[in-house]
Amino acid sequence: MKNDIHPKYYPDAKVICACGNSFTVGSTQPEIHIEICSLCHPFYTGKQKLVDTARRVEKFQARLAQKEEVSASRKGKKVKKAKAQIRKKQARKIKAEKENNPAKGGSASGGKEK
Ligand SMILES: [Zn+2]
């Protein structure tokens, strides 16, 4: 090995996980802090666990809940569109009935004379 070019090697560097687990590895750093290890990663535990160090998942779920609350109280475009179509249909029906009734009566001017 050439002198003065290699970093100091720690044969039993301590690795500390956020879950509390710790083990030793060979490293150029004496201590390594990690967020996830084989003891707490969902792949190894087989459990559905959200790894959430920055509260991102929690924040997202809060935002989602807020959005759903708002959308429940507010009428969306779809609802408005559907209502407008129903109104249009009713207007058309009334118009058709009005057009049909004078024809049945025989004279269109009958209503005007009254
Ligand atoms: Zn861990």
UniProtKB/TrEMBL annotation:
Region (Disordered): 65-114
Residue spans of biased composition, Basic residues class: 74-93
Gene Ontology terms describing biological process: translation
Required co-factors: Zn(2+)
Keywords annotated in UniProt: Metal-binding, Ribonucleoprotein, Ribosomal protein, RNA-binding, rRNA-binding, Zinc
Listed Pfam families: Ribosomal_L31
Signal peptide limits: none
Sequence positions that bind Zn(2+): 17, 19, 37, 40
UniProt KW Lipid biosynthesis keyword: no
Gene3D superfamilies: Ribosomal protein L31
Cofactor annotation comment: Binds 1 zinc ion per subunit.
Gene Ontology CC terms: ribonucleoprotein complex; ribosome
SUPFAM superfamilies: L28p-like (SSF143800)
A molecular function GO annotation: metal ion binding
InterPro entries linked to this entry: Ribosomal_bL28/bL31-like_sf, Ribosomal_bL31, Ribosomal_bL31_A, Ribosomal_bL31_sf
Top-level taxonomic group: Bacteria
RNA-binding is among the record's keywords: yes
PANTHER family named in the record: 50S RIBOSOMAL PROTEIN L31, CHLOROPLASTIC (PTHR33280), LARGE RIBOSOMAL SUBUNIT PROTEIN BL31C (PTHR33280:SF1)
Assembly information from the UniProt record: Part of the 50S ribosomal subunit.
Homology family: Belongs to the bacterial ribosomal protein bL31 family. Type A subfamily.
Role this protein plays: Binds the 23S rRNA.
HAMAP family in the record: Ribosomal_bL31_1
Protein name, per record: Large ribosomal subunit protein bL31
Species, as recorded: Candidatus Buchananbacteria bacterium RIFCSPHIGHO2_01_FULL_39_8
